[in-house]
Amino acid sequence: MPDPARPKPDPVTKLVLEYDGTEFAGWARQHGARTVEDEVERALAVVLRRESVPLTVAGRTDRGVHAWGQVASYEGEPGKILSLAAVLPDDVSVLAWEAAPPGFDARRDATCRIYCYRVLARPTRSAHERGRALHWPHRVDRDALDACAATLAGSHDFTAFTPTETKHVRFQRDVLAASWRPCGADVLEFWIAADAFMRQMNRVLVGTMLEVARGRRTVEDFAALLDGRQRSDAGPTAPPHGLYLASVAYDGTCVLGGEEYASRGLGSYPEHGGGRNGGLR
Asked: Can you spell out the DSSP letters for 239-263?
């Protein structure tokens, strides 16, 4: 039986969000800039009738990066999801708003994150994919792309894939899975699951792999970058509009392309919705 003398833990709420990052300076609050964090916290304050609702987020997406399944948490109770949806801007949508276990932390408890980068690989641009995928009119060697992705699984030093001026102090990341997949007739998607990511890491990976696909560097050159080479040794940073935070897992496993992978840590929260096509639980 519960001890009546022991105080009840403070309630915690989990949000699952999707957003179009085009008009945002990223997730994190910045002076004089429009951010996802500002918009969501403002909407929560209105609906919950609180002065402020500070959020903890699973992944701080950069300027222009989109999300299909971003996860955030805050101390307090949830409200009515339709009420929150009504006051959010058109480029942010709430997919779930529900009570979480005591002590749940969207960032600290995450055991796996999945990102997707979309590339439109054809000579002419697309009106429909504008702002949604990188237009790549150049040569694409699919075998080379697949070979690059195959080198990523495991623990590697990704120093070459993040800006030289950085606040990161740990450059090793554990990649659970990575693969390129066709999506329709002309779009290629790069999917990657890892314990955590560094700033611009996925975009530099994509920019460098596309150089391999174009024949400007070899798969062996790409693989050598995973041993902690300098940023100048890697390729360009792909633009942000092709990148999506697909989903976040909290149960110690993730699913990518129908395969289940176990992450090193065990989170405290069961699977959630959010994400899409081959996404993650």
From this structure: PGGGEEEEEEE-SSEEEETTEEEE-
The low-confidence residues of the chain, meaning pLDDT below 70, are: 1-7, 166-168, 255, 257-260, 262-281
Contact at 8 Å (CB) between 205 and 226?
A: no
Nearest in space to 177 (alpha carbons), one of 280, 237, 251, 261:
261
Radius of gyration of the chain (CA): 20
Give the bridge partners for 100, in sequence order. Answer: 12
Which residues of the chain form beta strands (DSSP E)? 12-19, 56-57, 66-75, 92-100, 112-120, 134-135, 154-157, 172-183, 187-194, 243-249, 253-256, 259-262
Q: What domains, with CATH codes, occur in the chain?
A: 12-100 (3.30.70.580), 112-262 (3.30.70.660)
Based on the number of CB atoms within 10 Å of its own CB, is 164 exposed (0-12), middle (13-18) or buried (19 or more)?
A: exposed
Asked if 33 contacts 74 with a C-beta cutoff of 8 angstroms, the reply is no
Residue from 3, 10, 20, 62 carrying the catalytic annotation: 62
109 included as an active-site residue = no
pTM of the model: 0.89
C-alpha to C-alpha distance for 66 and 189, rounded to whole angstroms: 14
